[in-house]
Design brief:
The protein is of the alpha/beta class and about 220 residues long. About 50% of the residues lie in helices and about 15% in strands. The protein has 8 helices and 8 strands. The strands form 2 sheets. The chain has a 5-stranded parallel beta sheet, sandwiched between helices. A 3-stranded antiparallel beta sheet has the order 6-5-7. The N and C termini lie close together (about 5 Å). About 35% of the residues are buried. The structure holds BIS(adenosine)-5'-pentaphosphate. BIS(adenosine)-5'-pentaphosphate binds next to helix 1, helix 2, helix 3, helix 6 and strand 6.
């Protein structure tokens, strides 16, 4: 396997599934959202630029996000990877294909995680993330043992700034308008695989692994 992309609306479970697959298959998990939040946390100029868009639920400009992904892909150039949240525009998908072709690599499959909208909103509204280790919880579906405290490392749990109702709705609209065409792009190449994203994380993961097995 060379590379996989995981596409889905906000809250579809991309990060949750990517972390499970990273452990199960030993592949590299590259999340564009995490790279952008790390750039914001370290106060880089890319981070400052990105924050203005992310706070509004809009996509960060292609060139900015592509440069972060390229840096990260170069770090581990030979390993199989799973991209989470990238590409999100057709231009990003085309740039990714060119970037990989220069290294003799390509995307094997694009997995589309499908979840009904009301469930997406419920998942995002209850999400909490650990500031220290990045572990993810949900106040209803997967609550921490002590409110506000990470079970894994004792770190502080926080709610992402873009997980308020208004910004969630904006992100969902952006997905429909700007990222749906990416699904069509991969469908035309015969690489798109739809995954039912409902059910528990482990049920979804079994479906994903079965599909990846077929794509290899
Ligand atoms: P990003 O960080 O990528 O956020 P997103 O796409 O909006 O997706 P989320 O991280 O919100 O959700 P997820 O699908 O990973 O779900 P999760 O597993 O966390 O992007 C943020 C912003 O950065 C964008 O708005 C944009 O501004 C910018 N950006 C990023 N990439 C970009 C790009 N390529 N181009 C331009 N801009 C870009 O799960 C959510 C919750 O549900 C958790 O609490 C989890 O515990 C729970 N959960 C997960 N699975 C299940 C399940 N099966 N059952 C019950 N609960 C579940």
């Amino acid at each position: 396997m060379s590379g996989l992309v995981l596409i889905g609306p906000p809250g579809a479970g991309k990060g949750t599934q990517a972390k499970i697959l990273q452990k199960r298959l030993g592949i590299d998990h590259i999340s564009s959202g995490d790279l952008l939040r790390a750039a914001i946390a370290t106060g880089t100029s890319k981070g400052r630029d990105a924050k203005r868009y992310m706070d509004r639920g809009e996509l960060v400009p292609d060139d900015l996000v592509v440069s972060l992904i390229e840096e990260r892909l170069i770090e581990d150039a030979a390993r199989a990877f799973l991209l989470d949240g990238f590409p999100r525009t057709v231009r990003q998908a085309e740039t990714l294909a060119d970037m990989l072709a220069r290294k003799g690599r390509s995307i094997d499959a694009a997995l589309s995680l499908d979840v009904p909208t009301d469930e997406l909103v419920a998942r995002l509204g209850g999400r909490r993330t650990c500031r220290t280790c990045g572990a993810m919880f949900h106040m209803v579906f997967d609550p921490p043992r002590s409110p506000g405290v990470c079970d894994r490392c004792g770190g502080e749990l926080y709610q992402r700034e873009d997980d308020n109702e208004e910004t969630i709705r904006a992100r969902l609209r952006v997905f429909e308008k700007q990222t749906q065409p990416v699904l069509e792009h991969y469908a035309k190449q015969g690489k798109l695989r739809a995954v039912d994203g409902r059910g528990t994380p482990s049920e979804v993961s079994e479906r994903v692994v079965a599909i990846i097995g077929d794509a290899r």
